Amino acid sequence: MNVLVCRWDRVTLEAVLDRGASVTLVFDEWEAANRGVDPKLLERVDRHYVIRSFDAIDELAQLAVDIRTRGVKIDRLLSLSEFSQFGAAYLAQLLGLELPAVETSVLMRDKRAMKDRARQAGIRCARYVSLSTGDVEGSVRQVEQELGFPVIVKPAAGLGSVDTSKVEDAAGLTAVLQEAGRDATVKFLMAEEVLDGDEFHVDAVWAEGKPRVFGVSRYLRPRMTVTTPGRDNGSILLPRDREAALYEEVEQLHERINTAFGITDEITHLEIFRRADGELWFSEIATRFAGGAIPESFGPQGADLRELWIAAALGGPGAELPAKQAPYPYIGWINIAPAETGRILEEPSDELISRFPYVLRTVRSRPAGSEIGELHPSVWCTLLVLGADSEAEFRERAAELEAALLPAYVMGQ
Question: How far apart are CA 132 and CA 177, in angstroms?
């Protein structure tokens, strides 16, 4: 099988190669400079391309022609990130593949299109207003008339919680739009009403419309209320046997969402709220694996979520990866990160982390020497997978780790 992989990700790439696939790999210049690309792993792929950006359609078109000229027929295209979705769909069309489809990429990336499609299907979701950096006064007036304040403001085609904020009034919204307008590439944002209640994420792998993997997790606190990336920043993967009613309800909602968006053979990351009225409300969905240490949180049950996805996507011998009994019923992850920008001079050591036996894995995303230029909930630094016997105990252990490890960060300029 010939597989085209869009983006550098070690775990996914190794999983694809280990299944005997012939791999064409595409990643961009930023990844080449910042992702720690392993030359030995790179030697295992058949060919690779480094492009300026997945939004550079001229370069993507030339890349597609080069693949065709070499006589390579791509059987499956895998887009591993949010920012590669548009380009991956364009490549798929040029290479004669049905998936990922261009329309689906727009629905998954542009939150306005996503909300419209959900509402058309009768799925509860927040009301929104489209904002234009070219018409600041008109956009502010429309929010005042249709939504009121406060609102959540985010890029129309953004990434997770990056550049997303809660805006309290017209002056705040005006400032956000004016600041965004300084970037010539940012034309549209959106404002949506604030959803209250508990926030969950649902991570699943689908094959022929059926879930091969299905996990419901509760965020320690809603993403928009995370004020610093190193506190209360994580989630708890809930055990199905103890949360049977929740799983049944979420599965029914997910089935409706899949029908509305035409999802049949994908990996998905869904975010939903349980509001004060007791109902589940749709927030966002992506056809990619989640960030943070969400994929690694599945490891204690048998395999990383990315490995489970590739097993379902490529099939073949050993398609069903063996499950195992996790050491704790509640598995989850937290992010330990500095509360200030600058260069990381020192970070929590392995020896310090080893004092906490319930920590099952450590993933270092920004090791010592890395720069932190801005603070937002998705500034991943030291990601810890941990276990507990209850949700309450998980939260206690997360707080214990924060108290012990955050002071170990030393920052400089």
Answer: 8
